[in-house]
Amino acid sequence: MTMAKTLQVESGDVPASLASRTEAVAAVAAAHADAIDREGRFPAEAFAAARAERLLGIMVPEEFGGEGASVGDTVDVCYALGRACSSTALIYAMHQTKVACVVRHGRSSPWHQDVMRTMAAEQLLLASSTTEGQGGGNVRSSAAAVARKDTHIELERNATVISYGEAADGIVTTARRADDAASSDQVLVVFLKQDYTLERQIGWDSLGMRGTCSEGFMLRASGSTDQILPDPYERIHAETMIPVAHLMWSGAWTGVACAAVERAESFVRMVSRKSGGQLPPGASHLTKAKSSLRALRGLVSSALERYEHALQDKRAIGAVDFQATMNLLKVEASEQALAIVMSAYRACGLAGYRNDSEFSIGRQLRDILSSPLMISNDRILSNMSAAALLSGVPKRLRD
Ligand SMILES: Cc1cc2nc3c(=O)[nH]c(=O)nc-3n(C[C@H](O)[C@H](O)[C@H](O)COP(=O)(O)OP(=O)(O)OC[C@H]3O[C@@H](n4cnc5c(N)ncnc54)[C@H](O)[C@@H]3O)c2cc1C
């Protein structure tokens, strides 16, 4: 993964690399991470910095004023932010998933082209609404339908969870195509802040990821048919929503796991220094954590390579094997990230358990516990049972 893109900074001709801009935002996110977690508030400081460094619109194509950053570049940003503040990283990951949907599936639509220009110029933050009513993580089913009168549309949706809904500049939501459409006949619609109201139904006092402010709302939106992405959601889901969401989330979670490993390493070093080079009994857990982190980074990187390769090949992106890889990436990455944080926690022992220690793993552990639930791994695994049976077992080690 590379961060090759550069941006002309206003003050002169010296280009600021995406890596250095990311570092600047991560430093702000890290400085406020404990307060964000304690107070359960939106990471406003980190997103002000992200806007100032123009990190929100990096994936918008250059022709619309963005930088045309790749999914790989953006996953790198998620990882860097995950090391600093899990909530900031997850919000950034969710936002960029929505941006990717607009960029890939709205390119031919004048309304979405305009939105891309605004996204780049004003560094808009987009939120996501897929969870509805009691439907849980069944993203491929919607209850509320888009009501149409000529070119005017309206949507009223019981949006059980919209992370950072109040802080966002727009919401990208799934909906049933029309009143008489089946629940799986969905569209994806972009509404900007002036198009909707949010009536809070439920707050967000959670174990972790407290800064995502994932509250529940009644979403009431209106606009024009132009705001509906031209591709059916079924296609957007398979080509962009699932692969990009799972890559971005995995990047963020791997960053969270890395933060826990860094703490465990500092702890083991500190103990060793204080005891004349003697390693603490938990040091082997650090070895395990580091080895698992290496494997997880490899998993995310290889999935990313597959995705970037599949982007050039329409048949590959629809293939069962590619879809399985992208779906299972989420399951594997979340389980492995959680296991790594647990290993780091065990390496630190009591120092990791305490909230008042510089080696505390509490925040990372609470945050990463959300990862297997965020579209439940059980749901994904059970949805894929039939496909897994069809795909067979490889006979050779390297295929
Ligand atoms: C931090 C965070 C941020 C989020 N942000 C957003 C957001 O911005 N927008 C949004 O729309 N949603 C968001 N969500 C919600 C998310 O997308 C899922 O909808 C939600 O996590 C599913 O919730 P659930 O566990 O109640 O539901 P369910 O999916 O119903 O799962 C409940 C339990 O049922 C079991 N289960 C469910 N289905 C099966 C099955 N087929 N086989 C076996 N067992 C099954 C599992 O054990 C699961 O734990 C967020 C979630 C989290 C954790």
Describe this protein's structure:
The chain has three domains: 16-125, Acyl-CoA dehydrogenase/oxidase, N-terminal domain (Butyryl-Coa Dehydrogenase, subunit A, domain 1, Orthogonal Bundle), CATH 1.10.540; 127-227, Butyryl-CoA Dehydrogenase, subunit A, domain 2 (Beta Barrel); 233-391, Butyryl-CoA Dehydrogenase, subunit A, domain 3 (Up-down Bundle). Residues 6-12 have low confidence and may be disordered. The strands form three sheets. A four-stranded antiparallel beta sheet has the order 4-5-9-8, with no helix packed on it. The protein has a three-stranded mixed beta sheet with strand order 3-6-7, covered by helices on one side. A two-stranded antiparallel sheet has the order 1-2. It is globular, with a radius of gyration of 21 Å. The protein contains 13 helices and nine strands. The protein has 399 residues and is of the alpha+beta class. It binds flavin-adenine dinucleotide. Flavin-adenine dinucleotide (FAD) binds at residues 94, 127-131, 136-137, 161-163, 209, 212, 214, 370, 373-376, 378-379, 382.
Which terms would index this structure?
399 residues, Butyryl-CoA Dehydrogenase, subunit A, domain 3, Butyryl-Coa Dehydrogenase, subunit A, domain 1, binds flavin-adenine dinucleotide, 3 domains, 13 helices
